[in-house]
## 1
Amino acid sequence: MDISGKVAIVTGGAQGIGRAVTECLLKKGARGVTIADVHEQKGQETVNEFSQQYDNERVTFMYADVTLKSQMEDVFRKTKTTFGRVDIFICNAGICNEYEWERMVDINFTSTIRNTYLAVEYMGTKNGGNGGVIIINSSTAGLTQFPVLPVYSAAKSGLVGFARSVAVRQIIDTKCSVRIGILAGYSSLFSSIGFLLDIYVYEHLTCQ
Ligand SMILES: NC(=O)c1ccc[n+]([C@@H]2O[C@H](COP(=O)([O-])OP(=O)(O)OC[C@H]3O[C@@H](n4cnc5c(N)ncnc54)[C@H](O)[C@@H]3O)[C@@H](O)[C@H]2O)c1
């Protein structure tokens, strides 16, 4: 996809993968990127840094909790007002906390579905948008069993099922010109720790 002149929204773009994706979009010539995140301080720092490195006018931060529809609607509305359009939605915000599993399902799974449909509403040609691309950030934990993170794995698996199903159905693509893709990455550090924890769990819990 040719990124030049395109406008993107990146959830969870204050740090980590979302921050890296934001930088990549700016490097490839995106006209504008809105970072939507709950980490206000990090978000502002990232925007300040990228504004100096790239162009002041091309990157902006908005405080937004992905679980709150009204705040995400605001993000789409303001991005359209500021940059004139929305072409790319990177649905990346996520947490990994089995102790707060209900909130994790809400952030990683439920909100991703709600915000994908919201993005189709704002980007789709059916409602006067230009069409575009939605990328959902899943995980390799969504493709295979992950005993130490059962709910994380379930939420990420759910995203794979969702993205595959809407992609096959092609209703969104045909009627709205919005394509949906899914990422399933992993960090080697994370998987090494996960692997060691798996061994620990098997040795200390399942064998008792
Ligand atoms: N790091 C990994 O190894 C890895 C591997 C595969 C998939 N992922 C997925 O990639 C995505 C990003 O992971 P990361 O490692 O960059 O994490 P990170 O913790 O570095 O960044 C996540 C960002 O999401 C934001 N966020 C959290 N809850 C939010 C909410 N309710 N509303 C808005 N923003 C919120 C955080 O403030 C943070 O800036 C996640 O969905 C994660 O599950 C990560």
## 2
Amino acid sequence: MSVLLACSGAADSRAPPSPALAPTIAPSPTSAARVDLAAPTSAARVDRAAPTSAARVDLAAPTSAARVDLAAPTSADPAASATRTTPQPPAPPVAPTPDAKGLRFARACAPGDTLTIAAVGDLLLHHELQIQAYAAPEGFLAVWGEVKDLLALADISYANLEGAVATGLNRKGEPVTDPGRVFDRNVYSSYPRFNYHASLLDDLIRSGVDVVSTANNHALDRESTGVDATIAALDRVGLAHTGTRTRGATGPWHAVTRAGGLNVAWLACTFSTNQIPDPDDQVLGCYAPAGALEREVAALAADPAIDAVIVTPHWGREYSDEPDRAQRKLARRLAEAGATAVIGSHPHVLQTWELLRTKDGREVPVVYSLGNFASHQPELPRRSSMILYLGLTRPPGAKAHVHGVRYVPLHVRQDGERYLVEAIDRVGGPADSRALTVGVFGEAAVLAPGAPLATRPACP
Ligand SMILES: [Zn+2]
């Protein structure tokens, strides 16, 4: 059963199997079969994939020595002697190596109102982390308190809330006596069905988080009643959310946050709900119904009251450090529909970023996966993630665009029974984790410890 579901890691082994997990519905376009392929061999595949990924990026870079060598004529080549006798124009300047993996924005220095956004990946709170947090006076800040100030550094901060926050609901979504802030494996549980105590939401607010996605493959871990309960809990504390709706609701899927005079719309979706039925259409799909997400994006982009549209898809293959074709194609469609940026999660590992240029001339950054922000998955790639920062500019009379990106490499450290999310550069954290992350995203965009959040440092 476990390999059928996503987001495994530390299994809640004493949990009874849930009858609702039986495959009673047709698989989604991104079916569980793809998860099956990734799961059993995941550790080996990730370990092998890491150095390959860096090598691939190096080869693709414009300054690749290998490509220059291959292109050079040999001494036996007639062209070589011609080169010696005929003056040649100087070689074009090569891009500086430290920036080869970064994103360059043509309108980085355009004037206008500005705003910064911070985003982190999955809050996948396996039982070890829940036990730690529920026993600590500071709650989940016992897990990620070290990076709290880095989340609060931006004007708006986002995270993916992977699981239900349903007070007094058991694994079937039925009302039972709530145990309080205790990991009882019935109301508050871990893999395969996550449910968190509502104090988590207070802890997120205290951490500077402003908006969360509730659209992910664990959105229905407490069934339809759990979606309703989660939304009620979020509304109760005033934490903005996107991607799910209460039963019978016809209101918007998105949330709007306002800061710096800009209205930013957030729109989350998921590729799957782990084969748990969604009879009331409470969870926004990324791929199905076909075109629905793109229409939502287009409507938000056309709304004169909205300055930017950030789409946060929950997508991709678990443990794959490269986005798949479906992700790349959807990213392109979202960009063309009017997204300002696309920030993904779910694969449990970091996936690369790129800058898409749309037919109407906009530049849309896509970060395919932010990895696990907080989880108990022991493999190095699954403990390595980042805080991503986006800087936005709204020129006078125009929509906002992203003007720059920065990031802070993160790592989940195990200290005995405790799990701690740490900023690697600030605590002298593990070099192997840092090398993995910087190998994908480059050194130039790293935000140094103590540095101000300058998302376009090269501008006057
Ligand atoms: Zn997921």
## 3
Amino acid sequence: MARVKNVYCAFCRSSRRIYTSRGVGAVHLVGGLIWSVIFTMGYFREMDFRGVFVFLVTLGVSEIFLRLRWRMQIVCPHCGFDPVLYLKNPEQAAAHVRVFLERRQASPDFLLAPRLNLPAYTPAEGENNTMDHLLLRGP
Ligand SMILES: [Zn+2]
């Protein structure tokens, strides 16, 4: 049973649903065990010690896909904000958001999309009014 949670983007405050499991849990262990037994019985025609390796490979593949799914869905589909990247490198995360918003502005896919609730910003005197304000400046 996949656990799904409703979360809000830290940048645009848009709501979305994400899977909370980052890795293999009890359900995946049981599923991997059942799959390994079925595969071992089908392939070797009896219970075989090599079924343990099938089980381990199944768990490894499951872990990889669960982590990839979590990592891909954590990026906001509305503004492109990546909280994991932001923790490692805020400037690079800001650059990704800027590129995403520029593409969003030019793309017809987002014409009917709801308007983003981006942080308010008023350019100072003499400052050009580009999307540079989306660069999250560190301390
Ligand atoms: Zn967002």
## 4
Amino acid sequence: MSDSAYFKFLQDSKSIIDENKNKTVDASLVDNTNDCKILDTNKKKYLAFVLQKSLEELDENLLKFENKYCRKGLKINWAVDYDDLLSELHSIMSKRKVKTAYYTKHYLYEEVGLEDFLKKQKIKYSEGADVNFIEAQTLIADTGNLFILDNDMSNFKRLNDGSINIFIIGVEQLISSLADVEAYYNTQLAISQKGYNGYILYHPIKKDKDYLFIVDNGRSNMLNMQRQRVALNCLHCGRCAKVCPVYSVIGSEPYNNVFTGPIGNVVLPFFEDVDSYKHVSYVCLLCGNCEKVCPVSIPIKDLIIENRTYFRKTKGIDIPMNSNYLAYKKFVTSRKKMNKSKILRNMLLNKILSKAFRKKRKMPPLEKKSFNKQYILSLQNENK
Ligand code: SF4
């Protein structure tokens, strides 16, 4: 890029920031009557539509983005998983003799284990660093730009301070068109805790100064699920977790993952692996609180039911446990069996619910007489 083109780029970015600097959220966008600000329904619907459309055309959109982004000889680093990403990062860091890095708290950095990686490489955190890890919220397919939220031009300054810039973004974080940037930005402003006051539409200028990583890390598994894939529209605002009655009790620890709460219940079995994470789709009470506060209207409750149906159909639940449940159901729905003596019922149930099944569960205490017998007795007493 020539000096004059570079200068024009700086001017353009600055004017975009200036234009948006004092922009406040459109009052109709936010309903403050609720504890958790809820976006105006039409605007929510519109953004959900934009994101869903971008997702449905993801293959095409990624190609479009690549064409535009790489037009000046730039390259995209496609990473299948975090091993892929970290090994490429390692070679960049070694080649460029990086000693310090600047980064923020970000779910994607946590997901790929960036902080641990940097510690192992003995790369220290610094505000003025050799490498800046800068959060880009989304890619814009038809222009090849990166959309970066900014606060007081801090990201703008970093992008232009002469250090190496590294962007890590999920393969699903993409919108088709620049025309939808305003809708996306307004939603980000409404849900943001950080008080952004502008955004940058960034397109790198030198290939050895900016590195873009687009990470899959299980997302394509989710894309293959025709119904569940809408969960990839998640903006990671964390609102659903705040209103979830189960999450309020168990917190994030049991998930042992960066994705937690209601949206974690949907995506984790696909982002990780079904066997290790299918159980999270069963912790939900299906109250639907999460759907009411989601800024992009993800039908979380329905998706959890979809997951359960899918696991069942594909025998994705433990076969031994499944047969235990079936035997248990057969027993408790048989009046003849339930009317047997307490000792006999106990014995039979213990046999049905194998030792392995009872390892983590206590046997439910049984009534001395079955409810059927109790009912008959109460009727007899009444008629006396
Ligand atoms: S599912 Fe919706 S409410 Fe939950 S984190 Fe994602 S965008 Fe926020």
